[in-house]
Write a structure and sequence with these properties.
alpha+beta; 2 domains; four-stranded antiparallel sheet
Length: 241
Amino acid sequence: MDFDAIFTAYYGQYRADSDIPTSADSEYAVGMALANEAINRWSNYDGMYWRTLFTTLKSSTQVSPALVSTITTGTTKYTAPTDFKEAGGFLRILGATGATRETYPIVEVDKVQFRGDDSRYCYFTGSPASGYTLNINPAPTSQINGLSFDYVYYKTPTNFNTGTSRTEMSDPYFIVHRVLASQFRAARNPYYSSAKADAENALKQMKMDNDSGNWANPITVTDNSGAVWGGNMGNNFFGPR
């Protein structure tokens, strides 16, 4: 759902008017700013890791001359995508067919001091303000020169900047309700509370869906230990006889 569709859905409820402002209108600009605030609220909600924000270097949409995914002999530093937020578990060096040839564990930067100079690992340095850099240890040899690499990372969400911009959010109607609530609050409109409740309900539903996995792969791991009320564990029985 792109921003134009979100703005149309919001404006239809806010003004009850089918004459939607164009991108040159000030109301459109205000709506986009409030929509980006809603994205920020979603991305930082309750310490969540949203599944839709996990991606890989190979599938990154960030375009930068400094962003490369090919190993060069002796080069230990590689620029991360601009939307990089946190790293996954491993750096994978890929062969010509795309199969994993070597792996490097990704460690926290404060753990680097406990690693040997010759041990194989990598880590990220930097900050959201100036960007992140992948550091590989030891320096790549000529044996892997020219091979591509990939890693999983957690990204920052995409903000709206044009009408065709899209969000990674599973339920964009959270943005519709959130923007509506923000406008009602600014106008001291009594419908602020109901619009906010609609937004928060949508947010909680997204959290529940995110945390529940799917029907084939639920998040909750079944406890097969038998050490539960009414269960068996060897010859022991827990519960009333």
